[in-house]
Write a structure and sequence with these properties.
mainly alpha, 8 helices
Length: about 200
């Protein structure tokens, strides 16, 4: 007879609702903790570039989004899905995506310095971070990465275009919005019901 202690940890977690704060190493929880740190960096690195009173507004929006995300991911009981092992080649996809993102940072910085527009760099970062998420959706069987990636890339492109016309403020605003939107999308994914037929 198989006991709970003998069963794989993911299978045990799949059986009944759990609070994520008790399973911080589960992929559905750990990924959000890491993403939340990145989202927070977007907000705090860039909100000081906004004119008053927007830094305070950005801080309040970030606080609210962070609390919603923490409730949805860490405190709300839910069934943590048995994600299983990554698909073959997922490690290569991950490595290539991160390398591409870092390359985009370097190339973007060089181009912006060459055209004397370094203040646009936060928008380039947003686009690169967003696009690096997109391949993860298929590689890790997590559609949320596709949604997150395309939404972030779109925000970054809008910020870049507005920044070309109006300077650093819309670029900083786009980066701040990116952080808040990341937190809210991750919270939404955590409360979304599992599709019928998907393992829980």
């Amino acid at each position: 007879m198989t006991t709970t202690r003998q069963r794989p940890a993911a299978a045990v977690l799949a059986g009944r609702p759990h609070r994520g704060i008790r399973h911080l190493l589960h992929p559905q929880v750990l990924g959000v903790v890491i993403g939340g740190a990145g989202a927070s960096a977007f907000v705090h690195v860039n909100r000081g570039l906004l004119p008053a009173p927007w830094p305070t507004v950005a801080l309040l929006a970030w606080t609210a989004a962070l609390l919603v995300c923490a409730w949805a991911v860490l405190l709300r009981p839910r069934r943590l899905r048995d994600v299983g092992p990554p698909r073959p080649g997922a490690g290569v996809v991950y490595t290539a995506s991160v390398a591409g993102m870092l390359a985009a940072f370097a190339v973007g910085r060089r181009v912006l310095v060459a055209v004397d527009r370094p203040e646009l760099m936060p928008a380039v970062v947003v686009v690169a971070v967003g696009l690096h998420f997109v391949p993860f959706a298929r590689a890790f069987g997590a559609p949320v990465f596709g949604t997150l990636g395309w939404v972030l890339a779109a925000i970054g492109v809008v910020g870049l275009l507005l920044g070309v016309v109006a300077g650093a403020v819309p670029v900083a605003a786009a980066a701040v919005v990116t952080g808040v939107v990341m937190l809210l999308l991750m919270a939404l994914d955590a409360v979304r019901p599992e599709p019928v037929g998907r393992p829980t």
